[in-house]
Write a structure and sequence with these properties.
Blueprint: H1 4-31, H2 35-39, H3 49-68, H4 100-120, H5 133-155, E1 178-181, E2 184-188, E3 204-208, E4 211-214, H6 220-228, H7 240-248, E5 257-260, E6 263-268, E7 271-274, H8 286-295, H9 303-311, E8 312-313, E9 318-319, E10 366-373, E11 393-400, E12 417-419, E13 428-429, E14 433-435
Parallel strand pairs: 10-13
Antiparallel strand pairs: 1-4, 2-3, 4-14, 5-6, 6-7, 8-9, 10-11, 11-12
Length: 439
Amino acid sequence: MTDPAHDAETLRERALTTLTTARARTTLLTSCVEDPDLTAQHSPLMSPLVWDLAHIGNQEEQWLLRTVAGREAMRPEIDGIYDAFEHPRAERPSLPLLPPTEARHYAAEVRGRVLDLLESTAFHGTRLTEAGFAFGMIAQHEQQHDETMLITHQLRKGPQALHAPDPEPAPLLTGPSEVLVPGGPFTMGTSTEPWALDNERPAHVREVPAFHIDTTPVTNAAYQAFIEDGGYDDDRWWTAGGWAHIRQHSIHAPLFWRRDGKQWLRRRFGVTEVVPPDEPVLHVCWYEADAYARWAGRRLPTEAEWEKAARHDPAGDRSMRYPWGDADPAPEHANLGQRHLRPAPAGSYPEGESPLGVRQLIGDVWEWTASDFLPYPGFQAFPYKEYSEVFFGPEHKVLRGGSFAVDAVACRGTFRNWDYPIRRQIFSGFRTARSAGDV
């Protein structure tokens, strides 16, 4: 029989570890530059870094201290300032934001009270406290904003502020370039993952016809072939919306790339370097991914196809938490958590491959899918509609798998991300697929 006290201590330790890991990363991202860089808006697409810092603290206070613990608001006058739905990002620099020192103090004071609360919280009784969900939700929220702040660092002009070791070189991948995923039903989504968010629920059966999917994400070298073949100048490969978008904005290559003679260079966190041919392509929008797939005689996988490739275990006829099984991600499985500041070479992490032999489905780059962001059958918004429900519809495309900028707490085989098809500042790439009957 399971010891409830042991379970509570295990959950408490997990919550403490994930909250602490997130705060260490937040601190790094907001302490590696001077205050003027924190208060500046480096792109109209992004908030000032200092807004993210105080927003993280404000959300933590509202959900854990006020909602779970029932305490009085610490700074009720700032709630509206840090309401992400009340103020678009482009307007946030004009708000009366807490200055950096005050924002740090506020976030630290909230965290101190939360850690005291964690010591006494019973992980049962309400849906928010069951299995420590509210603490997991807040850890995921902070890590998602850490990824957003890392995007801001990539958009920021100026010298390099962040440093991390490069991934290990990967041996040349000698296996097949694509893998056959057999047709049939599989269980998509989850009803058992304790910290899964509402859009991942509930588990349900999907029938997916047989298809082939790329063994690895599409590389820079492969994408350069598309460019050199005139891919950006041939409307045959583009949807009407995509063609209009790249014409209007004079897009001819992934974001942050520029041609220097016969080679391509890119800017990455303040450093200009030659585009590495064996890395997954990064900073492409959905329109670009879709056009490349058409040019290659293929297509983007649907969201259900992607998840089946990532989770289906044919031998056990079951859906796993991750491509490699049910164990939490370890460094040998995937490139996650800002451990590196770039994707690993295509073919890396053989210990993280799926039973069918698909690699790098978790980490490295978010992967665009063909699917619109829609609710699963039986979806119920929880704990608030603004997390998922207000974004459902054809305006947003689904991304899967996470990137090098995603922490493991916010990345699972069921985790769903979404964005507009024009977005390129995000750490997005893709892989392609084809139906089993296609040549």
